[in-house]
Batch of 2 targets.
Target 1
Amino acid sequence: MKRARHWLTPCFKLTTLTLAVPFLVACEGPQSALDPAGPMAREVAMLWWAMCAFATLVLIVVMALWVHAMRRNSPQMDAARARQLTLRWLVGGGLLLPTLSVLLLLLFGIPIGHRMLPLPLAGEQPMRIEVVGHQWWWEVRYPDSGVVTANQLHLPVGRPVDLDVTSADVIHSFWVPRLGGKIDMIPGRDNRIRLQADQAGTFRGQCSEFCGTQHTHMILDVQAHDEEDFANWLQARREQQVSALPGPAGEVFAARCGQCHRVAGVSEGNRAPDLSDVGARSMLGAGVLSNEPGALLRWLHEHQRLKPGNAMPLHDDLDPDHLSTIADWLETLRP
Ligand SMILES: [Cu+2]
């Protein structure tokens, strides 16, 4: 009895810990693939749960066999019988079981993968958006309206959206876990992924392919709107006209910032994020700072400390008053 308790205690602890794992991890939140908010993401979540259930079943069977093997008394048998039993376990456990497991998962997984493909639709055609990955920010273009934005993706609810993704430098990967699967963004190649949001709200995307030291600061703010709200946002952006910043600070912006950044009607730079609606974004630096009052000025002064290695040069040589005026003006830019 004493021996049995000694054997059970660590085993009991291990089993309890293993069973507790699913309850200890976060299955919700703006970036959880297990909290789907659209049909493609639901397919991914279903496949995940099916694979998790199957893997748990395999684990339980293997552990049960292991415990049985540890506890039983070895039967006496001749060498020929022992060889026969070993062969049976090798063929059954080493060949048949893995083959059947893989076949079962393929039978379940292939139709799911097929349903997630951006195939032609019979009814309403998907909306098309282009996304370009940069080190370390997202360029988002709406080709039908000419609208460009950065580090945020606005979508209509209840309508499939095809995203044509590529990269301007290294390999990135596009992933909005609550809305769909992920897809690589490869320089010189266009890949397409279909997403759909079933409900209005804010979701979070994240580059999911290591792309350099600031890979973690490559967050995409995804806003799903009702059809009318989305149409209003798109129209406001399309018709947006920004008045140039007057005075010396405006000249500094045109000579320095505007060479890389575009602001609708003011500058035509195309090497850095479009700033036409930067005041309306929820965050700066693709997730480095929350876009609160004063955050833009802080970003202009400290961007290389906050996000080392980003492509924006230091502004130490500029008059702090001009930087402050530029930051105040940028905060007003919204559709
Ligand atoms: Cu990355």
Note: The mean pLDDT is 89.
Target 2
Amino acid sequence: MADQRLVYADPCDLDALRQALADNDPEHKLCPIQMDRIYIQHQAIELLPDIVREHAKGPKVLMVTDATPYYRGERSLKEEIYFLLSRTCDVRWLVLDNHDHVLHAVDEESQKIQQAIRGHGADCVVGIGGGTVTDLCKDASHAVSDEMPLIIVQTALSVNAFSDGISIMLKNGVKSSLPTRYPSILVVDLDVVRQAPMERNLAGYGDVMATWTAPVDWYLAYRLGMNNTYNDPSCDILRRQNTELLDASGKLAERDPDTFQLLARVLTLSGLAMGIAGESCPSSGTEHIITHLLDMSADKQNRDVAFHGAQVAVGTIFTAIAWEILLAEFDPTKVDLDACYPDEEKMHGEVQKAFGWIAQSTADECWNGYQKKLASWKAVRPAFEDLLAHWDEFAAEVKKHLVSPAYLCQQMHAAGAPTRYRQMTPPIDPDTARWALRDCHLYRNRFTLSDLLYYIGWWNESFIERLIQRAEELDAGL
Ligand SMILES: [Zn+2]
């Protein structure tokens, strides 16, 4: 049975969490949580001057934001923080101006922050914003010095990227998880995040829906020998509190303060789960890969990227349906093993077909990762045969942790969260969604459910149509 200290982990009590993790890590697999403090409370903004004084070596603060206005009543939140900090610190404010386009986590923006840190001789960085600003601040301050305190002020409960040591950066048009650094301090002011646009907070709710699919994808990869980072504590700290959140979905629509606090906790724990695993697998499986494809195609199609978490939630519905079909219909004795190992030439062609239209560099980057995945898949054939021989055991374990797609959709509807790609801002057209679903397994080297289903010959156009049809019955999908 899972340790109750993990099941009800409190991200604001990192010492207790570290102790519980240490007690549940016999193989010493877990990575340390390199954060000093997490604040999830009302009026947390007011604490900022004291936080800077306590953690920074001197008074020079580089404040980093994007250009998105954020008003609390009459006043701009960012200005409010600027003036608050300026009372005791020498603050330089860097605005990453995205010129009416969505700010991307690209090297060029990270460089701007690095230059500003050096130019100002900053003693600490205070990043204010969402996931992209956070990823950029992590990347930039990591490039300059991991010793320098990085304080992140979360303006919405929009993604889980705030409490881990990874940055999702766009390289050659492909989203890559790079090990960068943790923020030293995370500040979640419940009064601030509750006033953020509901669409943003529902995106964070959507991002943690991946808890119902990513950990089982991760476990599958581990069971097949395609991944060795799998650990139970990363999953234990997520599941129970996320179940409570899912059950309380309706209260989110009512902006119930306790449910907002629970969402803040679960999102933060979801980041920590990735941090202790040392990679994003606990919170990122098939549902995220589908999302990465949608993002990759956005530029080429001249559309902005829709909210990450909102897309992830729809991807989660499709992935949960795929798991449901697999567990209901798969007969391990009917697998034609030799047919499960396509040759390199064929797969190189498939990757080219899937991504060449975006850019040759994108196709090359994906093939680079996919080639390694294919080679590993061939090497672990004995583990696959073993999985087939013990399928019932595996299925029973996985079933414990899945939620039915019907319940997922019902609760997402209760939360007022979008369940269809056409409800994204901006909407995603059916052809693009079909492409992302069909070709997601060709994206780089992470092994997920979509790979298994492809190798056993299921993941094809007619299977995707089945997923779409089932989602449609649940008032979800395209
Ligand atoms: Zn995510």
Note: The beta strands are 37-41, 60-66, 71-72, 75-76, 90-96, 124-129, 150-154, 166-171, 174-179, 185-189.
